[in-house]
Design a protein that fits this description.
By secondary structure, this protein is an alpha+beta fold. It has two domains: 1-34; 45-190, no CATH class. The protein is built from five helices and nine strands. The strands form two sheets. The chain has a seven-stranded antiparallel β-sheet, covered by helices on one side. A two-stranded antiparallel sheet has the order 5-6. A hairpin with a 3-residue loop joins strand 2 and strand 3. The longest helix has 32 residues, at 3-34. The relative contact order is 0.14.
Length: 194
Amino acid sequence: MPRKKHGCLIAFLIVTALVVSYLVAVFFYDREMTDYGRESNYLSNRGYAHALGLRNFNYDLVLQTFGVPVDKTVQEHPDLEDIMLISLEYPEFRLNYTELTEFDGSTSRSLYLVTVWGESIKFGRKQIGVGSSREEVHKAYEKEPKISQGELASSVEDFPNVAEGYYGEDWSRILFCYDDAGIVTSIAYEPPSN
């Protein structure tokens, strides 16, 4: 093999090895920095968005997909300046966001709670939703860590009457309210903290 072709082949192999090494490093870095340490056995975070017909819970995507909400409230956060609380209510669910105003005047919105009360919305393989029994919820979420009653206290402010909950992917929270007969009356999804 001529020397020039041999040199090009070696250069190509070195560049390929560097690119592959970079991609592997990025994969593990991304996994370490964005994987909050838990994979769900029942339904991924993305699965909760898909059940509502969304790719994700991006604020603008929600408005584009569902249009003008039945009710929209915007209020200042009671304890934090420059943060607004936005609630978008649709006939079967509500999405709550925080809106942070940056120093340059731009804003960013983050989802902090989805509440579902509509019977047509079902989650996961076992189609858990409003109208499911407590036993059906337990069977569906049996492999997920249950949230202790003490830990549920932090969710009560945003989701009153929560009876029980489970940790999902990335330690998100899936919360349930039941009626006296043990039937789900509402479900909430709290995404993982960033």
